[in-house]
C-alpha cells in the first residue's frame, strides 16, 4: 500500500526542549554537545511510499544520511556518529525507531517536523519548520 507523502520536504531547526539533559543521558561527548546546541540543522526528507531518505545538513557542510524502508532492518547512524542497525516502524502516522540508547519518533504536526527522543525517562523534543 502506498504511504502518504506527508514527510517529504526540507525543515529547518526552530526550537528544542531538554537538550542538555538528553545529551548527558546518552553520553554525547562535550564538543558534540556544544556543536549541537541550537544548531540550525536542516533536515531533508524524501519519502517514496515506505522508502525514506533522511538527511541532516549541519552548519559547516557536514551531513548525515540514513536510508530505510519502514518495517525492514537498515544500517543507521546516530546523532553522535555511531553506526547501528534499526528497524523503523510506522505507528499512528509517526516514524518510530529504537536507537542503541534511545527511542526516536518523528511526525508531521501542524506542518512542522516534530522529533522526540526518549532515553531513560528524559524526553528531548525538536521542532523544525518547513522551508521547502
From TrEMBL:
In terms of Gene3D superfamilies, this protein maps to: 2.40.128.20
Q: What is its main location?
A: cytoplasm
Keywords in alphabetical order? Cytoplasm, Lipid-binding, Transport
Recall the GO molecular function terms of this protein's record.
Answer: lipid binding
Cite the Cytosolic fatty-acid binding proteins domain residue spans from the record. 9-26
- Pfam families per UniProt: Lipocalin_7 (PF14651)
Keyword Metal-binding tagged: no
Compartments where located: Cytoplasm
Record GO cellular component, one term: cytoplasm
Please state which protein family the record places this protein in.
Belongs to the calycin superfamily. Fatty-acid binding protein (FABP) family.
- Annotated protein name in UniProt: FABP6 protein
Q: Which organism's genome codes for this protein?
A: Catharus fuscescens (Veery)
Q: What is the lineage of its organism?
A: Eukaryota, Metazoa, Chordata, Craniata, Vertebrata
